[in-house]
Amino acid sequence: MSSVETAAEHERILREIESTDTNCIGPTLRSVYDGEEHGVFMGKLDGRIRSHDRDIERMCNHHFQGFVDSITELLKVRGEAHKLKSQVTETDRRLQQDGKGLMASMEELRQCRIQQKNIASTIDKLQMCLPVLEMYSKLQEQMEAKRYYPALRTLGQLEQTCLPRAGQYRFCGLMADSTPLLRSQIRDTAMTHLRDFLESIRKHSDRLGETAIKQAQVQRSLDSSTSVHPRALIGRRIRKELSLGAGTESNGQGGSPLSEQDSGILDVEDDEEEEEEEIPGAQDLVDFSPVYRCLHIYTVLGLRDVFENYYRKQRRKQARLALQPQSNMHETLEGYRCYFNQIVGFFVVEDHILHTTQGLVNTAYVDELWELALSKTIAALRTHSSYCDDPDLVLDLKNLIVLFADTLQGYGFPVSQLFELMLEMRDQYGEILLKKWTQTFRQILDQDNYSPIPVATEQEYKNYTSQFPLQDPELDKAAFPKKLPFSELVPRVYCQIKEFIYACLKYSEDLHLSSTEVDDMIRKSTNLLLTRTLSHCLQNAIKKRNVGLPELVQVIINSSHLEQACTFLEEFISNLTNVPPDTANSTQLYGTSTFKDTRHAAEAEIYTNLNAKIDQFLQLADYDWTTAAQGGGAMTPSDYLTDLITFLQSTFTVLTNLPGKVAQTACMSVCKHISNSLLQLLLDPDVRSISIGALHQVNTDLLQCESFARAGPVTGYQGDTLILAFSDLRQLLDLFTQWDWSSYLADYGRTTSRYVRVNPHTALLLLDKSRSTMFAQFRKTDRDRQKLIDAVIRQLRTLIAQQQA
């Protein structure tokens, strides 16, 4: 079986060798050499070769005669071919010789045709290239003239229309390669101009704001004669520029701004005559063409979003710089003015950009910037205004804020928070005014001589009555020279109060407040002036150590006249505000109570000073508490008491100018103080014993005091009313000098008792002090009196115990 298979395999290999390209029999032969039957295969291969050789030999023998015949025929044809070649060569020679002229003419014609075709093609190509060259030349001219927006439009036409039509030329390729560079150059140049514009308006924002504020100020001056809102005229100017801008932002070449100036701020000549006619508008000072040009360029380049973001980002930074106040802004009004001018200038530019561009800035963006500016401005004003202590500067600042608010309100910005801030500053302004008027009142009080004003002529009298509303018919009829009842303080204080009211009224102007609100504000501020400032100054003047009784008397008289003038102050405020004083919920002036308090303080000071003077006299008292009773003859009053009575008599002569009740109260207070002081002398713990003779001396002094009271040092007391001030001491001394203990103990507690004002405790203290001197004088026969004293002491202690129970 293996031999059969080997034979079949060898047969297959032989067939494959016969039918396969020799380049591919390598693997076949390799399989034979790898086997073990190599010799057998070689034998078969030799047999196959011999078989094919025999086949070839038979085929050659079969076709040999035909091959010989073909060779014979071919030899015959060769001779004829040589003849034909000779004839063709001769014919070609003659044809070549005869066609040389024709060929020269044909060559000339061919060259002419080629030249004609080239000329036509060149003309066609030049006609296609000339627009490219013309457009490129125009582009170069526009670039040299810095007309970048038209250049950008030209570049777009060149790139999109002309170059594709011109074909693939080297110069077209160079032009096409240069277009991105030209675009970048235009974009960078436009951005450079925009940066210059932004830097320029940042530096000149204060000038722009100053011009806009002047416009608003002029418009406010016209408001009294026209009903046009400030925004109307300002807006009219803006709308006019808008309409002009819409027509002039682009030319016939596709929207290029007509203005190609690169400066952001135009030079405006300061002609005084022209300024009188019309103040140049804020937009007249600014050339916005760099913004428009850059916006158009970036729009054409497809980078409008990039431009918008860059512009807004840079303007936000400039806004923060403009909103940063100087550290010393509060020192002068000019600092505030520059601060406001920068802010107004910034928003004037933004408002113009908002209304003259399509979406570069929008309302939301401007409102966001305004909210930021408003919050920072209010915070800065709160901080810096708190350092101010000059009312004139605060008033000027308020007027400047009003103008600032009106200007921005004219551009459509909400400014209600600024007016709320000014209402907050009103309280600060009031405090500063109060401090200023405190110094004024102190100066007036220090300079006053506290004496009635002498008037020698009618003119002087009219001058004083014009300053102060004096209504005294009797004084009007009196002959000259005469005296006004008050001192110089009264008209000066009254005029200063009116000046204060005027100052308050000035602040309330232009705050959009109603008459009732203004009236209420002025009245509240005036009340503070009266109840706090003036009252405090008057109280301090009264409390001064060097103020004597005549000065205190004059203070009372002055306070009375100022109190009477409060009704005229009410009318004065009502005339200023056109609000009747009897309007519901109207604040009333507290001047009446203020001057009453001052008068009462002066009266109390008079009482205090009199009592202090009495204490000085009483310090001179030198009683001999152990002196024996004199056998006969009247005792003389103490010297200190005699001097005290003389002083009181002269003092109450001065008090005659006071109202009756004041003098009466002062006299009663003096008598009570003398009585209490004498009683305290008797009850002084340092005085351990008092003799009957000392009690008689005190009784003599008391009689002198009662005589003074009975003489009526002041009018208005009926009968012995003033003597009642000494009744406590009188009853106590009568009890001891008359030794009437039986009546005292029997009638104690009854209203009809002769000693109803004698307190058991006081009587016991004095009895203890006088008991020791009495025992020293008792003889053995007076033991009954000693027992009586002991019994009295026991009963007094019983009464004291009953009172305490």
TrEMBL record:
TM region(s), chain numbering: none
Polar residues composition bias: residue spans: 248-262
Keywords linked to the UniProt accession: Exocytosis, Transport
Domain Exocyst complex subunit EXOC6/Sec15 C-terminal: 417-769
Any GO BP annotation: Golgi to plasma membrane transport
One Pfam match: EXOC6_Sec15_N
Positions of region (Disordered): 244-281
InterPro entries associated with the record: EXOC6/Sec15 (IPR007225), EXOC6/Sec15_C (IPR046361), EXOC6/Sec15_C_dom1 (IPR042045), EXOC6_Sec15_N (IPR048359), EXOC6PINT-1/Sec15/Tip20_C_dom2 (IPR042044)
Stated family: Belongs to the SEC15 family.
Task of the protein: Component of the exocyst complex involved in the docking of exocytic vesicles with fusion sites on the plasma membrane.
Name the record gives this protein: Exocyst complex component
Organism, scientific name: Gadus morhua
